[in-house]
Design goal:
Order of helices and strands of chain A: HHHHEHEEEH
Shape of chain A: elongated
Number of domains of chain B: 4
Strand content of chain A: 5-15%
Structural class of chain B: alpha/beta
Structural class of chain A: mainly alpha
Largest sheet of chain B: 5 strands, mixed
Largest sheet of chain A: 2 strands, antiparallel
Number of helices of chain B: 21
Largest interface: A-B, 42 and 54 residues
Helix content of chain B: 40-55%
CATH topology of one domain in chain A: 3-methyladenine DNA Glycosylase II, Chain A, domain 3
CATH superfamily of the largest domain in chain B: NADH-ubiquinone oxidoreductase 51kDa subunit
Radius of gyration of chain A: 28 Å
Radius of gyration of chain B: 55 Å
Oligomer: heterodimer
Strand content of chain B: 5-15%
CATH topology of the largest domain in chain B: Rossmann fold
Strand order of the largest sheet of chain B: 13-12-16-14-15
CATH class of the largest domain in chain B: Alpha Beta
Shape of chain B: rod-shaped
Number of strands of chain B: 16
Distance between the termini of chain A: 102 Å
Helix content of chain A: 25-40%
Number of strands of chain A: 4
């Protein structure tokens, strides 16, 4: 009988001690905010374009953490959907066409400055303050800050904003991945266009 | 060599056919001057230089044509004298085949130098060993020297080691890559310059020792260096170390490991382990820059391969087109490719067979990092673009000089699992090509790694940009919220102000009532409030008076008109009412004024404790005088309007006068007792008293006159006589006189 009592007492004391420990830890090490939202937000491309139907990437991240679908971000495209799927442990889905298509190449806004009338409408539309200018003064885009979200194109009353592809320079260029599986037999050994051109030059 | 150096070994490495003999058969030659020189502004690692010449400018040999942009950058100099014919985008010798801004110079074939001299002479020093390190580094930077081994890192930046203490300088003369003999020939022919460069570098770095690592397949170069050491008496400071031939012993990290046994940490620089490594070509450029003032405008380039007749090394001006160099070397393009033949066209490779890249065109210039132009036949260097399946033989891992796992990296790169590739230290890969060389399946492994590295860098850049965008977006939202809050606050403040004004308007009649019932406490609160009350009362009074005049007129009209006889009583009632109202307002006003004064006097009391002090009495007197003035004014107004308050007011006036007298007497008594009053004051006061009395009398008389004039005016008005105008004028005159008298009275009283 006493063995049972000892066992019960010991287990109860242990339970109380660990309960108190856990209770203390939950107060002492409480995590402020919702960490999953920040993680999702880190994966999103931060173009702040609103194509997902939310006013920015953070609100969409919050919506995803609340159960929204992960395939509503055209600027992020398949890569972002894949990352989100990995992060959240859900099945990746194809991009929802309703919200737009993924761009083939990244673009930046370009203001044809001769045509700009200085209405400041694009400045108000830009979510990242990447357009510089003042009322009745010509505006221009700070290329390094532009996320290519297209939000400035619509408000322009004179349609002087183009979205142009980002050029490749020596710093952003990198080697292409080798072609795989294309040349398995000897007759596949066809010279590439560039080497042909090189020969012609010589 | 006087020291015993224990050599170490690095893992891996390969022994490809050296193919160096072909290009060491003859000495370094200088090619003929080309028709144009193309100088890309970005020949080094770091920021592109900024052109400082314009199209059409005439430049001299050695003149600066582009200034460095920022710290990690290098200037550019004209390789010969001539004219700048264009500053435009040209294809640059880079694996990407992209265009970049280039300065094109048409040589005038005079080859006339810009003025240049040694740094020693420039500083006017006798002993060149005294040149401070800063001056040396500046000279090296100004001469545009960038690492000539292949990477092109600005040498001045490398020599400015900052916080690191350097104990060993290593000159890299290993030149391990097959075919290339540029450094070999340089060491053979210009060994003295190289040793001199080592001396200068040691002077800058304050390093204890210098090791020159040369592979044992270059005995002539080693002999030449030893001879130069003896010539410069440096045999005790600088050691030429013969190292075994193995590819890639010329890699910076590998050479450091061979010579010192130290490993450069991953992602770190040699300076972290107290070592600076320079190419022998760079050392020569340093010597020329310091001792002759010659900027980096030419370099030694090997032109070799079986399609070249005159294989060998050339001292080439930077910017010389590759095609020009090939022509000078007797390049023979192999016959046209036959259709359906599987024979590949020949490639022109910049760099060696292991790490070089095929040029898209031969119209490219030789730049600071071009150590070799390789033009092999297909037989000599067959292209391998059939990649077979990886058989997991592990030969790549054995060959890797950086102790990586090339096979794993290959899988990860192929599957685009970039994070895993990074975890497997992809960025420690030196892209030497040893793994690809040994791969039995001919998998272009290095190309996978290069792609993955680029993709990871791009991802990092994208992430950084996203982070930047997020920050800017959040800053914008914060700004908008702040602006909105400010706007709201302003709007709220305006609304409150408007509401207050509205309330004050509503409260105005109420406050008059309060003033009439509980004058003393209400006005005791603040003098400003009571003054506002006074104003209000004044307004009401004016309004009531106007109403009174109108009612009177109407009454008179009714009295004259028999039709309106029945209305007379009504008007009379209204008149009486209005007069009552005016009386009431007058009483209120008086009360309000009294309160206001009381409050001010209260303030005075609080200021001054003694109620009998002369100042206080003086004030009392002044107040009484002011009251007297107001009373007389009131009287005048009453008289003007023919009210029956005149009598009352006259009585009040008398009372006030009495008070003034009292106050004055009290003041004088006090001032005379407390301190001897100035003798002039008393008589003046006395005379003033007389004057005041006289004036008051005059005023009374005048007031009588005004009253009479008023009466007459009223009568005239009532009877509708045409004398009204004249009477009004007279009345006004009388009033003016009265006002004048009162004005006289006021200063007199104050005095």
């Amino acid at each position: 009988m006493s063995t049972i009592i000892i066992a019960v007492v010991v287990l109860s004391v242990l339970a109380l001690v660990f309960g108190a420990l856990l209770g203390f830890a939950s107060v002492r090490f409480k995590v402020e905010g919702n960490p999953i939202v920040d993680q999702i937000n880190d994966v999103l491309p931060q173009t702040q374009c609103g194509q997902c139907g939310y006013p920015g990437c953070k609100p969409y991240a919050e919506a995803i953490s609340g159960g929204e679908k992960i395939n509503k971000c055209p600027p992020g495209g398949e890569g972002t959907i894949q990352s989100l799927a990995d992060l959240l442990g859900v099945e990746p889905e194809p991009l929802d066409a309703e919200h737009g298509a993924e761009k083939a190449v990244p673009t930046v806004a370009y203001i044809r400055e001769d045509e700009c009338i200085g209405c400041t409408k694009c400045i108000q539309a830009c979510p990242v303050d990447a357009i510089l200018g003042a009322a009745k003064q010509m505006h221009t885009v700070i290329v390094d800050e532009c996320t290519g979200c297209d939000l400035c194109v619509e408000p322009c009353p004179v349609d002087c904003i183009d979205m142009i592809p980002v050029g490749v320079d020596r710093n952003s260029w990198y080697w292409q991945a080798p072609k795989t599986g294309a040349a398995l037999i000897a007759t596949d050994r066809q010279p590439s266009a560039s080497t042909l051109a090189a020969e012609e030059h010589v | 060599m006087t020291h015993l150096i224990q050599l170490h070994e690095f893992d891996g490495g390969i022994h490809p056919p050296e193919n160096k003999m072909q290009s060491t058969g003859r000495g370094i030659k200088t090619p003929p001057m080309p028709n144009e020189l193309v100088l890309p502004i970005h020949q080094h690692i770091g920021a592109p230089a900024d052109p400082v010449v314009a199209v059409g400018d005439t430049v001299l040999k050695g003149q600066t044509i582009a200034e460095p942009h920022g710290y990690v950058s290098a200037p550019l100099h004209a390789p010969t004298s001539g004219t700048v014919t264009a500053i435009e985008d040209r294809v640059v010798p880079h694996a990407s085949g992209l265009t970049e801004l280039s300065i094109v110079i048409k040589p005038d074939r005079q080859d006339s130098w810009i003025e240049h001299q040694s740094l020693c002479a420039e500083l006017g020093l006798d002993d060149c060993d005294d040149i401070p390190a800063d001056a040396l580094i500046t000279r090296i930077r100004d001469c545009g020297i960038a690492g000539m081994g292949g990477a092109g890192f600005p040498t001045a930046v490398k020599l400015n080691t900052g916080g690191y203490t350097i104990d060993t300088l290593i000159l890299n003369g290993a030149e391990c890559e097959p075919y290339i003999t540029a450094d070999d020939m340089l060491m053979r022919e210009r060994a003295v310059g190289i040793i001199r460069g080592a001396q200068i570098s040691l002077q800058i770095l304050k390093a204890e020792r210098c090791l020159i690592g040369v592979e044992d397949n270059k005995p002539e170069a080693i002999a030449a260096l030893e001879a130069a050491l003896l010539e410069l008496h440096e045999e005790h400071h600088i050691d030429v170390v013969t190292i075994p031939t193995k590819y890639p012993s010329g890699g910076e990290k590998q050479l450091i490991q061979i010579l010192t046994g130290k490993e450069v940490p991953s992602g770190g620089i040699p300076a972290q382990v107290g070592i600076v490594c320079q190419n022998v070509g760079t050392a020569l450029a340093i010597a020329e820059a310091v001792d002759e003032g010659k900027p980096l405008i030419s370099r030694i380039t090997t032109v070799t391969g079986d399609t070249i007749a005159d294989k060998g090394n050339w001292d080439v001006l930077l910017g010389t087109p590759v095609s020009h160099l090939l022509k000078a070397s007797g390049y023979q393009a192999p016959g046209k490719r036959k259709i359906f033949s599987n024979k590949k066209p020949t490639r022109i490779i910049m760099g060696g067979p292991m790490m070089g890249f095929a040029l898209p065109t031969t119209d490219l210039p030789v730049v600071k990092t071009t150590n070799c132009i390789l033009a092999p036949t297909n037989k000599e260097l067959p292209a391998n673009d059939i990649a077979m399946a990886c058989i997991r033989c592990g030969m790549c891992a054995d060959a890797c000089p950086a102790d990586l796992l090339p096979q794993q990296l290959y899988w990860f790169s192929k599957a685009e699992e970039l994070d895993k590739a990074e975890q497997h230290n992809l960025f420690d890969c030196i892209e030497c090509g040893a793994c690809s060389y040994v791969c039995p399946s001919e998998i272009p492994l290095v190309q996978y790694y290069r792609h993955s590295k680029g993709a990871i860098r791009e991802e990092r850049a994208t992430h950084q940009k996203a982070e930047q965008a997020r920050e800017r977006f959040e800053a914008r939202i914060a700004r908008q919220e702040r602006e909105q809050a400010e706007k709201d606050a302003k709007r709220k403040a305006r609304a409150e102000a408007a509401a207050k004004a509205q309330e004050a308007k509503k409260a105005a009649p109420d406050s008059t009532k309060t003033a009439s019932t509980e004058t003393a406490p209400a006005s005791g609160s603040t003098s400003t409030a009571s003054s506002a009350d006074l104003e209000k009362l004044q307004k009401q009074l004016t309004g009531a008076q106007a109403a009174l005049v109108k009612t009177k007129e109407k009454l008179e009209a009714a009295q004259n008109d028999p039709d309106q006889a029945d209305k007379v009583a009504l008007f009379e009632g209204a008149l009486a009412k209005t007069q009552d109202k005016i009386k009431k307002i007058a009483v209120d006003m008086a009360a309000a004024k009294k309160a206001a004064k009381a409050s001010t006097t209260e303030a005075g009391v609080s200021d001054k404790g003694d109620p009998n002090s002369p100042e206080r009495l003086k004030k009392k007197w002044d107040t009484a005088q002011a009251r007297l003035d107001t009373a007389s004014k009131r009287l005048k107004e009453a008289q003007e309007q023919g009210l029956d308050t005149v009598e009352l007011l006259t009585q009040g006036l008398e009372k006030q006068k009495a008070r003034v007298e009292e106050a004055k007497a009290a003041y004088e008594a006090v001032s005379s007792t407390s301190k001897p009053a100035p003798p002039a004051e008393a008589p003046s006061n006395a005379s003033q008293d007389n004057k005041n009395e006289e004036l008051n009398r005059k005023i009374r008389a005048q007031q009588d006159r005004v009253a009479k004039a008023n009466e007459r005016l009223e009568m005239a008005k009532a009877e509708g006589l045409d004398t009204v105008d004249a009477l009004t004028k007279a009345h006004t005159k009388q009033l003016e006189k009265l006002a004048g008298l009162e004005a006289q009275l006021t200063p007199a009283g104050e005095a």
